[in-house]
Design goal:
alpha/beta, 2 domains, four-stranded parallel beta sheet, Rossmann fold
């Protein structure tokens, strides 16, 4: 994702890639890891220290696709430097989100956190929310590559939260399984919605919302074939983040404003 983001920003006519940070590639030319860069971007060396990079290059926006273990400190470093944040890392807790919102308010610097930057994925969530008011049963199956560090995905969690919110106090039905031959086989449950996570090579990031009613099943699916699907949402976020205030959680908020 970092490589895709670098290449996409570099190719955008209204943006300039000024720094790339990854401790695993420190000191190497960015071109060693990311092909098809402009001549200027290809000359950049990968930095291993975010705070120093922020001070040196003074970017308008930091794009973060890292890991739950480091993303909070990365956001804090960027906000301290007055750099707006566009974050695609997942695995945030409710407390983390509240902490980021508070830091944004304190520093007066905006941040966008999106569990999924794909336009199609956000439309899938929107359609699932619309459909859930007409069905009494729902489950989510999300499928990702084997290297994804968290489960369930941030997209699945946000989808379940949005669906539960749409139902309000009228919770979805969920029949208790009488006997679990394998513990956890019914998946995790959020808002009375079972969530099943698949991790295997061959997938990028897919999700299926299954809604059941009397004599019928509705499936709302989103499938990806390349990480390039996330880049239009990343570019949209970079372009507008500095016009926002505080924390914006979810690309759907930007899509609503543009509709």
């Amino acid at each position: 994702m970092g490589g895709h983001a670098c290449r996409t920003v570099d190719a955008a006519p209204d943006m300039t890639l000024v720094e790339a940070v990854d401790p695993a590639g420190i000191g190497h030319p960015l071109a060693d890891f990311v092909p098809d860069l402009s001549e200027a971007a290809a000359q950049l060396n990968v930095s291993g220290h975010l705070a120093a990079s922020l001070e040196q290059s003074t970017p308008d926006v930091m794009v973060d696709f890292t890991a739950p273990a480091v993303v909070m400190s990365n956001i804090e470093a960027a906000l301290n430097a007055g750099t707006a944040c566009v974050v695609g890392t997942t695995g945030f807790s409710d407390i983390d989100i509240k902490t980021v919102a508070r830091m944004c308010e304190t520093k007066g610097v905006p941040c966008i956190i999106a569990p999924n930057f794909s336009i199609g994925a956000n439309l899938m969530m929107k359609f699932a929310v619309e459909a859930v008011t007409s069905f009494d049963y729902a489950e989510i199956i999300e499928r990702h590559h084997e290297r994804k560090k968290d489960a369930p995905s941030g997209t699945a969690v946000k989808t379940a939260e949005m669906m539960a919110q749409a139902r309000g106090s009228n919770l979805l039905s969920m029949v208790a399984t009488e006997r679990h031959n394998v513990p956890g086989s019914r998946g995790g449950v959020l808002g009375n919605i079972p969530i099943h996570a698949v991790r295997t090579p061959g997938y990028v990031a897919n999700q299926e919302v299954i809604l059941g009613g009397l004599g019928e099943v509705l499936r709302v699916c989103h499938e990806t074939t390349s990480r390039e699907c996330f880049m239009p949402g990343v570019l949209m976020s970079i372009r507008v983040v500095r016009e926002l205030s505080g924390l914006t959680y979810g690309l759907d908020k930007l899509l609503e404003n543009n509709s």
